[in-house]
Amino acid sequence: MPIDIYSMRLSPPCRAVLMAGRELNIDLNVKTLDLSEGEQLTPEFLKLNPAHTVPTIDDDGFILWESRAIMQYLCNQYAPDSTLYPREPRARALVDRWLNFDMGLLQSQREALFTKLFSGVDPPEDKVNAFKNNLKLLDALIGDNKYLVGNNLTIADLSVLSTTIVLEKMDFDVKDYPNFKRWTATLSQQLPYFQDINGFDMKAEAMVYIEKIKAKRAAQQNAN
Fold first, then answer.
1. φ, ψ dihedrals at 6, nearest 5°
2. How far is residue 50's CA from residue 175's CA, in Å, rounded to a whole number?
3. Which pTM value belongs to this model?
């Protein structure tokens, strides 16, 4: 029986879970939600997830949201011996550390890159610098490594990759981060499902989504 996943492909956390599912050969039944239309706020979805966030999975009545928790669950439940989420405590701790780092990286990226797209206002300089410093740290930690932890692909790679692939799509210059650039290019070529999940025009789709949000906000303001 497939696992239902409520998803939006612009969302990096959603794409991370989809990649994990493909890596583990788990059948995920994608139910797309249009957040710009408020589909995450319907009574039906709120019964599943009061936090109204994506991704959310329904595994035969077991409801779970938060992408990193979902990936950990999928590994623990369906592939406990997979190197995607290693069982050895220290290796697993390093994966968990990266997953926590990625949460801050995603928020920093949003503040630095998407503030202007949504509001038309340049992001504060300190937010931009904070994001660049996060990228410098990421670049340094990657170093010459092929993967973020050990010699195997893990959910840490999938989570960070899904967060940062938008930089290339949004024409962000990554020349100052050569290790990161190499790591991204290597994984993008290595993962057979990468293009299926990430190969759409993110920039164009993001602009359509943002314009819909702006139009809805304007309509609400006019109504008031």
1. -85, 125
2. 41
3. 0.95
Phi, psi of 175 (to 5 degrees): -65, -25
Q: Which two tokens stand for residue 36?
A: 């710009």
Buried b (16+ CB within 10 A) or exposed e, 48-78: bbeebbbbbbbbeeeebbbbbebbbbbbeee
Residues belonging to the active site: 11
Class of the CATH domain delimited by 3-81: alpha beta
Q: Which CATH topology does 89-198 take? A: Glutathione S-transferase Yfyf (Class Pi); Chain A, domain 2 (1.20.1050)
Domain boundaries, the chain: 3-81, 89-198
d(CA 135, CA 169): 16
**pLDDT values of the chain reduced to their tens digit, one per residue, 224 residues:** 799 999 999 999 999 999 999 999 999 999 999 999 999 999 999 999 999 999 999 999 999 999 999 999 999 999 999 999 999 999 999 999 999 999 999 999 999 988 777 777 899 999 999 999 999 999 999 999 999 999 999 999 999 999 999 998 888 999 999 999 999 999 999 999 999 999 999 988 988 998 888 888 777 777 77
